[in-house]
């Protein structure tokens, strides 16, 4: 694998860290900025909103520009957003910094796969994409708990400064190592790219993604407060628990991808959403005990992100069938759907914490995930109907008496 891929992997690591580290720092941020936990939770929602806007819109608008130019511009925007967060004098400016960083995040993962495949031969394209996305997985395993620890020891601003430095290293690496003559497909007209938004089959998968992730983030956004206030852990233990969660996520990601390859995306997603809903229901009862809480979080991690490969493969598969001129935009819109779910889940979780209690977030999240399961089963039935109709349409008509003569 070329060295340029490692620059992309480092970029993915920095971006993944800055997105999810806020979860571990939520109590610290709320206390330091003098805002409520639900208000601090908006920092998760608004970042995700920036990703949701940036992924489809900016991907389509930058389709005609050289990939390396777009990549370097995105990393510069990412660094600027994290530096603004480091220097933010208050809550409002921190919100602006999070939205700005989210815009860069959305486009990076939309075009990152295209750049990665352009660096290698045809037979290594899948491995190249997997290597780049390893940066996101490693961020959950190491970057988030380490960033949480840094924020608790040296203040949350230090975390954003460190992420800015990582972004700078990734920017320099990309500038030096990524070639300027990357292969680039001819951009389809913007009108054709945006037809993705009118394709019902793709919209259904986006709904599956948003609802499934939304249910998870109703509870995950407030995991640190639950572990401190309900389970009884000290603040210093949160980073270690997030490390355990991250390892579980990494295993679940690999397992989810293999299951989607073997059983097909609809079957795999049905299993994963069912298990995820069950774990969230169970966490409502196990959160009160430190040991059972950690064990449940460990299982939770295995299913929380195990649906990512299946959802992404499913979107690409349907896009190639229904909108072949806009596969990149379709993929980018699924990234937007993930983050719409994160934004909505964090917002709903905040309302639950305000009106009900922290311990109501897991079971309500589980109910929402069951909605994603219902959408998945519906989509699977539509696939079967389409396959049957196409099979009937292509089946040769039986020979008539005239034909036989």
Give a concise summary.
The chain is mostly helical and 405 residues long. It has helices spanning 3-33, 37-61, 67-87, 91-118, 125-154, 156-177, 190-193, 200-220, 223-229, 238-263, 265-286, 290-304, 307-322, 327-355, 360-394, 401-404. Helices cover 83% and strands 0% of the residues.
Structure, described:
It is a single chain. The chain is mainly α. The chain is built from 16 helices and no strands. The longest helix has 35 residues. It is globular, with a radius of gyration of 22 Å. It starts with a helix and ends with a helix.
Summary keywords:
405 residues; mainly alpha; 16 helices; globular; disordered C terminus
